[in-house]
């Protein structure tokens, strides 16, 4: 050691070390300056850019669903409500093994495969940290079951939301329709922003057609979110504006009475308030419970509804296009009178059949052997087919179409529901265009009794009847009585009048209406509407109709009661009351049964004479 | 050269004499305490204002500071005597960690000693420069080729073993601590330049032996946007945090990047980003200058040290300390790749802070024991 120490040159080494130390100190200074420059660049030069990025990181706009407007009937009876409901939601981002969790939940809550499928479908429409509903409308028992087992399901939560509820759904589904979960196609059609928080949309009926009024305006929460997208705190909130409350023209008592009147029959009832055009009842029977559709009906349940022979999903009132049959006769009569083809006194002899001169084809009257001598009034009262074969032939199809067109045949009533069908008022041009066939004289003749290609919906029939009741004034039927905005502002619907039916002589109206009054009261000859019953506490003008349906030849000659039920004719009935100062017009269709007049009596009693024995 | 002369020239300065007697360097101690204080402020914010986390860190600092003072009492001569044994022991630990890790099939840095988990590679940051300093202590400087070769082995073997764990950050620090001793010992510039060239050109070869995650870190460093939600996420979020701080910062406890969890590892490796976000450029500068003050004091102590062993060791400890925070801040601000090194004296965690403070204790010992070591 001593030897080496002598070899070391301390001064030189110290000098060397000091030099090195100075160099490294310089290097330290340089590197530190580099860091300072970098900080200066990030924090002062690029400050704006990174502030923006930071804000973008932490801010999120969270949309809030507006409460859907409520639906009431004309008297303020609640038809569609929002009820608080608990749902089982999953936040996919917080679940470790989604499939395991799903199958565990499926076992615990006995969920069917459809629910799981639906969930998976909805999951792809949400961001990973947003709760996706799995099961809606949890019962209290299910809630308890979940809370006891909650620890087993991280990422699964219970959330409360408002859910559409139809208190007496099956009575009103014909008019109300229902809401359901928004699907992708619908999402593409609506305003994305306004629907960013919405889960439901009107699918049918009023819910669909008045979607804009009912939906409301989306609200926003400006929130600070963390890196997983969870809300840390709310900074600002723009409250959503609830949808408008909608008051329908429907009278819920009448609507229910109509359903009850149809009992076990299949059919439709439409009632219109004649002095305004308000639809008082819009009934297709049997109907369905719209509550089933809100959260997506299961395939099995849907098929059982779809395949039911009673077709509960078929909206007969709006979409049932029936041959108007003999209910057309009052309207044709008005055409005949107006065009001077007949006078109120014109009479013919009815042998029970009719043929065109020089033509072999026989057109039969519904009554074998005929009605004998009939004038216009009798022809309407007993619904004499032969009389109207004559009249139709003499009027010709153009004049028939003209008078029926004035009442609105072949056009939608524009009641405000998008699913409404227009019926059909055939003309030679129409037949050529749609069926590529020529118009035959026979087509004209059977038009006289409302058969053939002519079709009308119960809603249309009720509307024409109301026009008749109003002696030509056409008030467009409507369902939306008023909307009440969240601020209390009321928007009342004003009735719309279409071009009226103008006759040269107003007494033509009275001629036809007088005959229609006889339909239910005449004993000699017996009116076809006798089933309406005696002594209604109001005056009634009515007309029956029997719409034949296509059936095998072998049943043609058999009595109605002997053939299988589903091949029997539909019975139709139009009526208004009272005659002098009409209040209500109704149209009734009963499928495969002749009891339409009885239904009509119950409905009209319910409206005009509540408390009478028939209601 | 005698320390007594020095104090006889300044007889008024009784206070300094007092500090010398208890082997504490007050300047170093005060700067360290200031950094620790600021660090605790930042940690309180970064740790979601968790008091228990703060208490744990304070207790650790308390213990580590006591240990630092204990190490300051040990004269450099003792370190000189003990270091070969300690080095041998450290090597045994490093190898055993690797073997256990190999058996356990996975990265293994920790050795469980029953009462505490212990990271042997950390102590090598101190042991390696000490060993080299001791080796060069009685050699002529600048070192001859043979000495250089042996000295290189002393730091390259533990570096390699640590890199194998794999712990790239610590390995780099061990290499640095050893390299600094050589640099200060007068390693010729030609060798340094040649070595640097070799290092750069050997890049592709090193690349070949790197783990995938290490490769990713390098790639991500070169282009953070390459994988913004994967490995680039750290850098992007940390730059956002620092950049959004601006001149004055968003205020203490007001940082959103860390509190809303955008910034990963914000209490440990990325804690400087919290400082940048909440205290801004001014706050970052203050912290940086305090850290630099420690370095300056360390370099001063090194310059005033009496023996080769002491001055080489003091210089290396100081420069390693500098590199550790330079690399950390460089990585957090996106000018260096993410290597997983904590910010000394600020980041949450025990081992590295203890090693740093032991190093500071040794610096104090060197400064207050005036003997030729």
Describe the structure.
Chain A has 615 residues and is an alpha+beta fold. Chain B is mostly helical. Chain B is 72% helix and 1% strand. Chain B contains 16 helices and two strands. Chain B has helices spanning 3-9, 14-21, 26-46, 51-73, 76-104, 120-137, 145-164, 168-184, 189-201, 203-209, 212-222, 232-245, 256-259, 271-304, 308-332, 351-368; strands spanning 111-112, 117-118. In chain B, a hairpin with a 4-residue loop joins β1 (111-112) and β2 (117-118). In chain B, α3 runs antiparallel to α4 (51-73) and α6 (120-137) runs antiparallel to α7 (145-164). The longest helix of chain B has 34 residues, at 271-304.
Q: Quick summary of this structure?
A:
The complex is a heterodimer of chains A (615) and B (373). Chain A is of the alpha+beta class and 615 residues long.
Structural class estimated from helices and strands of chain B: mainly alpha
3D shape of chain B? globular
Radius of gyration of chain A in whole Å, from Cα?
A: 37 Å
Helix count of chain A equals 21
The termini of chain B sit apart by 13 Å
Q: Biggest β-sheet of chain B: count, sense, barrel?
A: 2 strands, antiparallel
Number of strands of chain A: 23
Overall structural class of chain A, as computed from helix and strand content, comes to alpha+beta
Q: What number is the mean pLDDT of chain B?
A: 85
| Low-confidence region ranges of chain B | 1-5
What distinguishing features does this structure have?
heterodimer, A: 615 residues, alpha+beta, seven-stranded mixed β-sheet, 23 strands, elongated, disordered N terminus, B: 373 residues, mainly alpha, two-stranded antiparallel ribbon, 16 helices, globular
Per-chain topology:
The complex is a heterodimer of chains A (615) and B (373).
Chain A: H1 2-7, H2 10-45, H3 47-58, E1 59-64, E2 71-72, E3 78-90, H4 98-108, H5 113-123, E4 132-135, H6 140-149, E5 156-165, H7 169-176, E6 179-181, H8 184-189, E7 200-202, H9 205-209, H10 211-215, E8 219-225, E9 231-238, E10 245-248, H11 252-262, E11 267-273, E12 279-285, H12 299-306, H13 316-319, H14 329-338, E13 347-350, E14 353-355, E15 362-364, E16 372-375, H15 376-381, H16 385-407, H17 428-435, H18 441-447, H19 458-469, E17 474-475, E18 480-484, E19 490-492, E20 497-498, H20 507-521, E21 541-547, E22 570-577, E23 584-590, H21 596-608
Parallel strand pairs in A: 2-10
Antiparallel strand pairs in A: 1-8, 2-3, 3-4, 3-5, 6-7, 8-9, 10-18, 11-12, 11-23, 13-16, 14-15, 17-20, 18-19, 21-22, 22-23
Helix pairs in contact in A: 11-21, 14-16, 14-20, 16-18
Chain B: H1 3-9, H2 14-21, H3 26-46, H4 51-73, H5 76-104, E1 111-112, E2 117-118, H6 120-137, H7 145-164, H8 168-184, H9 189-201, H10 203-209, H11 212-222, H12 232-245, H13 256-259, H14 271-304, H15 308-332, H16 351-368
Helix pairs in contact in B: 3-4, 3-14, 4-16, 5-6, 5-7, 6-7, 6-8, 6-15, 6-16, 7-8, 8-15, 12-14, 14-15, 14-16, 15-16
């Amino acid at each position: 050691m001593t030897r080496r120490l002598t070899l070391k040159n301390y001064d030189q080494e110290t000098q060397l070390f000091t030099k090195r130390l100075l160099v490294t100190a310089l290097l330290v200074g340089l590197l530190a300056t580099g860091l300072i420059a970098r900080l200066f660049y990030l924090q002062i030069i690029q400050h704006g850019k990174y502030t923006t990025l930071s804000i973008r990181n932490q801010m999120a706009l969270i949309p809030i669903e507006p409460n859907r407007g409520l639906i009431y009937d004309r008297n303020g009876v609640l038809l569609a409500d929002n009820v608080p409901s608990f749902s089982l939601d999953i936040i996919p981002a917080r679940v470790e093994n989604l499939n395991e969790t799903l199958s565990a939940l499926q076992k615990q809550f006995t969920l069917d495969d459809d629910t799981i499928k639906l969930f998976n479908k909805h999951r792809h429409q949400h961001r990973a940290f947003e709760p996706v509903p799995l099961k809606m409308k949890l019962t209290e028992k299910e809630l308890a079951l979940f809370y006891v087992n909650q620890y087993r399901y991280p990422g699964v939560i219970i959330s409360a939301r408002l859910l559409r509820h139809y208190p007496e759904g099956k009575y009103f589904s014909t008019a109300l329709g229902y809401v359901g979960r928004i699907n992708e196609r619908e999402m593409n059609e609506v305003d994305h922003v306004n629907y960013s928080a919405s889960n439901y949309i009107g699918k049918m009926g009023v819910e669909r057609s008045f979607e804009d009024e009912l939906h409301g305006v989306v609200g926003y929460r400006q929130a600070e979110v963390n890196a997983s997208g969870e809300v840390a705190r709310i900074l600002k909130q723009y409250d959503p504006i609830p949808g408008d409350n909608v008051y329908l023209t429907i009278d819920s008592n009448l609507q229910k009475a109509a359903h009850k009147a149809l009992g076990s029959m299949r059919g439709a009832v439409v009632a219109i308030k004649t002095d305004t055009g308000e639809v008082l009842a819009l009934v297709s029977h049997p109907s369905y419970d719209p509550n089933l559709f809100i959260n997506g009906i299961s395939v099995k349940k849907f098929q059982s509804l779809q395949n039911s022979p009673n077709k509960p999903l078929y909206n007969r009132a709006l979409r049932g296009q029936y041959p108007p049959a003999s209910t057309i006769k009052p309207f044709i009569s008005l055409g005949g009178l107006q065009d001077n083809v007949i006078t109120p006194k014109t009479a013919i002899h009815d042998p029970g059949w009719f043929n065109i001169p020089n033509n072999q084809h026989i057109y039969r009257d519904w009554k074998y052997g005929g009605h004998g001598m009939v004038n216009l009034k009798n022809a309407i009262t007993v619904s004499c087919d032969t009389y109207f074969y004559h009249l139709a032939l003499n009027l010709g199809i153009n004049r028939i179409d003209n008078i029926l067109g004035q009442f609105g045949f072949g056009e939608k009533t524009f009641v405000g529901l998008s699913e409404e069908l227009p019926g059909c008022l055939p003309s030679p041009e129409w037949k050529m265009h749609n069926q590529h066939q020529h118009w035959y004289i026979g087509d004209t003749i059977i038009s006289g009794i409302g058969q053939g290609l002519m079709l009308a919906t119960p809603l249309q029939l009720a509307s024409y009847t109301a026009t008749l009741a109003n002696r030509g004034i056409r008030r467009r039927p409507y369902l939306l009585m008023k909307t009440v905005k969240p601020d209390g502002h009321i928007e009342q619907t004003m009735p719309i009048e279409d071009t009226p039916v103008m006759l040269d002589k107003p007494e033509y109206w009275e001629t036809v209406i007088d005959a229609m009054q006889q339909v239910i009261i005449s004993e000699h000859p017996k009116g076809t509407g006798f089933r309406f019953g005696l002594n209604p506490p109001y005056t009634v003008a009515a007309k029956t109709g029997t719409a034949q349906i296509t059936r095998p030849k072998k049943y043609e000659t058999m009595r109605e009661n002997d053939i299988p039920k589903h091949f029997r004719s539909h019975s139709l009935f139009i009526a208004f009351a009272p005659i002098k100062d009409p209040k209500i017009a109704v149209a009734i269709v009963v499928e495969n049964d002749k009891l339409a007049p009885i239904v009509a009596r119950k409905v009209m009693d319910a409206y005009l004479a509540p408390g009478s024995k028939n209601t | 050269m005698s320390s007594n002369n020095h104090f006889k020239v300044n007889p008024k300065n009784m206070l300094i004499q007092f500090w010398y007697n208890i082997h504490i360097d007050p300047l170093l101690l005060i700067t360290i305490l200031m950094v620790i204080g600021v660090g605790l402020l930042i940690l309180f914010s970064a740790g979601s204002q968790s008091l228990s986390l703060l208490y744990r860190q304070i207790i650790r600092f308390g213990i580590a500071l006591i240990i630092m003072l204990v190490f300051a009492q040990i004269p450099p001569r003792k370190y000189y005597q003990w270091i070969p044994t300690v080095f041998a022991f450290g090597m045994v630990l490093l190898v055993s960690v690797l073997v256990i890790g190999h058996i356990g099939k996975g990265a293994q840095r920790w050795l469980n000693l029953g009462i505490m988990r212990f990271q042997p590679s950390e102590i090598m940051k101190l042991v390696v420069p000490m060993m080299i300093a001791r080796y060069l202590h009685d050699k002529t400087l600048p070192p001859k080729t043979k000495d250089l070769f042996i000295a290189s082995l002393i730091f390259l073997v533990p570096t390699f073993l640590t890199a194998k764990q794999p712990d790239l950050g610590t390995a780099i620090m061990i290499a640095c601590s050893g390299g600094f001793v050589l640099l200060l010992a007068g390693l010729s510039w030609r060798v340094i330049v040649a070595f640097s060239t070799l290092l750069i050109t050997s890049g592709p070869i090193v690349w070949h032996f790197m783990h995938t995650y290490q490769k990713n870190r390098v790639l991500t460093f070169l282009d953070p946007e390459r994988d913004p939600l994967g490995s680039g996420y750290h850098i992007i979020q940390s730059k956002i945090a620092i950049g959004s701080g601006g001149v004055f910062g968003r205020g203490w406890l007001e940082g959103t990047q860390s509190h809303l969890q955008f910034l990963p590892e914000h209490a440990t490796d990325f804690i400087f980003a919290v400082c940048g976000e909440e205290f801004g450029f001014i706050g970052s500068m203050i912290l940086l200058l305090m850290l630099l003050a420690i370095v300056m004091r360390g370099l001063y102590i090194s310059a005033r040290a009496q023996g080769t062993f002491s001055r080489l060791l003091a210089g290396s400890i100081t420069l390693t300390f500098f590199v550790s925070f330079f690399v950390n801040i460089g990585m957090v601000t996106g000018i260096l790749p993410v290597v997983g090194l904590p910010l000394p004296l600020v980041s949450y965690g025990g081992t590295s802070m203890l090693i740093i403070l032991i190093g500071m204790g040794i610096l104090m010992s060197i400064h207050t024991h005036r003997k030729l070591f």
